[in-house]
Design a protein that fits this description.
- Chain A: Its EC number is 7.1.1.-.
- Chain A: It is found in: Cell membrane; Membrane.
- Chain A: NDH-1 is composed of 14 different subunits. Subunits NuoA, H, J, K, L, M, N constitute the membrane sector of the complex.
- Chain A: It is an enzyme of class 7 (translocase).
- The complex is a heterodimer.
- Chain A is mainly alpha-helical.
- Helices cover 72% and strands 0% of the residues of chain A.
- Chain A is elongated, with a radius of gyration of 18 Å.
- Chain B is mainly alpha-helical.
- Chain B is 73% helix and 0% strand.
- Chain B is built from 6 helices and no strands.
- The termini of chain B are far apart.
- Classes of the chains: A mainly alpha, B mainly alpha.
- Chains A and B meet through helix 1, helix 2 and helix 3 of A and helix 1, helix 2, helix 3, helix 4 and helix 5 of B.
């Protein structure tokens, strides 16, 4: 049923869910801080796909979903810039990017 | 009918490009390969935006993600030296629990949205092009968040420079 039906909202939402879960897995299991940032970027992209798909299929009269995904892109760009600056700064201090070694806050 | 087949083919092509690249980002052991596949995944998402009538956002996606973010991550990979490139993207000891959580999240979300009947709130598609509509909303209803986003981006980038370069004591 789902495979022969024309490509609709559910297809895009399932794709977004799969992309989100891949990013979630990456954030959970990776040891490198840069790989964690990559996982977060994948999750933000999945959210953007959902926003634009809802915009097209649910509320086609305006462009609110696209405007919100622009804000998501802005925040993602700021986040990756600050995150990489932190990674480079920490690397200079500790010569590692492994999140297992970032244990300053440990008791 | 033919248009529908072309649309479906384009959707499944871009979807498989996006998902396979994302899987490569997550599962490969060399972080340079992961960074390159991340850019490929962003390009696939841009293709999906074209299918969703969001041509302006597809251009933004290619420029901001495929260009800036992917290059920034490549810089981050290059500026942090490692002894052995083969094991730069290793997993920690939570692999089983991470996979379990991801699969569970996918199952729950997929089940929820596959059986939810989404109804359009209004059937008439907008007559203006995407760039016109976005500009009208961004400089009209959403002008305050737009200005806040501009300030956020400026502050974040200045802060990133200070963090990475280090500020001199006056």
């Amino acid at each position: 049923m789902a495979l022969v039906a024309p490509v609709g909202l559910t297809h895009f939402l399932l794709l977004g869910t799969a992309l989100f879960c891949l990013g979630l897995y990456g954030v959970f299991v990776k040891r490198n801080a840069i790989a964690l940032l990559m996982g977060i970027e994948l999750m933000l992209n999945a959210v953007n796909i959902n926003l634009i798909a809802f915009n097209k299929f649910i509320a086609p009269a305006n462009f609110t979903g696209q405007v919100f995904s622009i804000f998501v892109i802005v925040v993602a760009a700021a986040e990756v810039a600050v995150g990489l600056a932190l990674v480079i700064s920490i690397y200079r201090d500790r010569a590692t990017t492994s999140v297992d070694d970032l244990d300053w806050l440990k008791w | 009918m033919v248009n529908e087949w072309i649309y479906a083919g384009a959707f499944y092509g871009f979807a498989s490009l996006t998902l396979l690249s994302a899987a490569g980002v997550v599962f490969l052991k060399d972080i340079v390969h992961s960074a390159l596949l991340l850019a490929a995944s962003f390009i696939g998402v841009a293709g999906l935006y074209v299918l969703l009538n969001a041509d302006f956002l597809a251009a933004v996606q290619v420029l901001v993600y495929g260009g800036a973010v992917a290059i920034l991550i490549a810089f981050g990979v290059m500026l942090t030296r490692r002894p052995n490139m083969k094991e730069t993207n290793a997993n920690n000891r939570w692999v089983v629990w991470g996979a379990f959580t991801a699969v569970l999240t996918f199952a729950v979300c997929g089940w929820a949205l596959a059986f939810t009947p989404f109804k359009p709130v209004d059937g008439t598609a907008a007559q203006v092009s995407a760039i016109d509509g976005i500009a009208t909303q961004l400089l009209g209803d959403f002008v305050v968040p737009f200005e806040a986003a501009a300030i956020l981006l400026t502050v974040a980038l200045v802060g990133a420079i200070i963090l990475a370069k280090g500020a001199k004591e006056a």
